[in-house]
Amino acid sequence: MKRLSLYIVCVLLTFSITGRAAAKTEYIVQKGDTFWEIALSNKVELDILIQMNSQVSNPDIIFPGQKIFIPGGKRIVNIVPLSPLEKTLFDLTNAKRKQIGLRPLLLDQTLLSAARQKSLDMMKNEYVSHISPRYGDYKTMLKALQIPFENVRECIGAGTNSAEEILQTWLSSSVNKANILDKESNQIGIGYAKGGLHGHYWTVYINQKAKGGN
Predict the structure, then answer these.
(1) Residue 126: its pLDDT value, please?
(2) pLDDT at 180
(3) Which domain does 40 fall in, by range?
(4) Entry pTM
(5) Residue-level pLDDT at 76
(6) What stretches in the chain show pLDDT beneath 50?
(7) 98 and 55 belong to one structural domain
(8) Same domain, 35 and 123
(9) Which end of the chain has the smaller Cβ count within 10 Å, N or C?
């Protein structure tokens, strides 16, 4: 069986996003709704929405008339551990930065959630791009999630379950390398999803947190 091709894209995103989650507490599922769309329209994180609705046995299958609870007020950020593959990539990235005298990147839970959502979307919709065929470009997605970060760098890839390989492939590109080893960056979120056409999907968000910022 031929080895899956490795698809890599990395781009620098620079924009400012601020705001709060919508102040709704209850939603009745409509025909055609998905958890992803409900999360986007209500400006909440998908992971948090799913966790709040444990009464839904399969988040991929919801039906019209179901009651969905939506968090309101300030953004809720749960402490979620990295998966083994995500942890390996996290450690390798910081080890590489340490080799050249750069400070380590700190794991940010909001960036982690966004990265996982992006990888899951690529897996489910079988694409590898900064533009989702269903939800539009990444800026639209991140703004809809009210992610309060500036100077975000997004790296995406697919086709390998090796954290070492995905990192080395990114580092072989001058643009990717400059983004991953940016001396001003100090935050990271990593998302890995298994399945779909290419088997394995990766997203990394790297951010420069401004002094006094969120």
Answers:
(1) 93
(2) 95
(3) 25-70
(4) 0.69
(5) 46
(6) 1-5, 8, 10-23, 73-76
(7) no
(8) no
(9) N
The count of C-alpha atoms lying within 13 angstroms of the C-alpha of 105, restricted to the half-sphere facing its C-beta, is 33
CA atoms of 85 and 10, how far apart (whole Å):
19
Token duo for residue 79: 């402490």
> Tokens 């390398």 identify what position?
177
Residues 53 and 113 in one domain: no
Question: How many separate domains does the chain show?
Answer: 2
